[in-house]
Model the fold of this input.
Amino acid sequence: MPAKIFYCVRCREKKSVEKYDEIIMRSGMKALKTSCPECGTQMYRIVGKRHLKVKA
Done:
């Protein structure tokens, strides 16, 4: 997977992460989910429908 930029709320910094999961949130929106490599906090990035191919 190509690296994506996520924002960590605890560290208050943008992080470049290569390992992430593609998910569908309860609201039906598609997102990427990972954890911060420094502090372990879960980070999410909401993406558009054309950027993600997840089977529901």
The chain has one domain: 4-51. The chain has a mean pLDDT of 86.
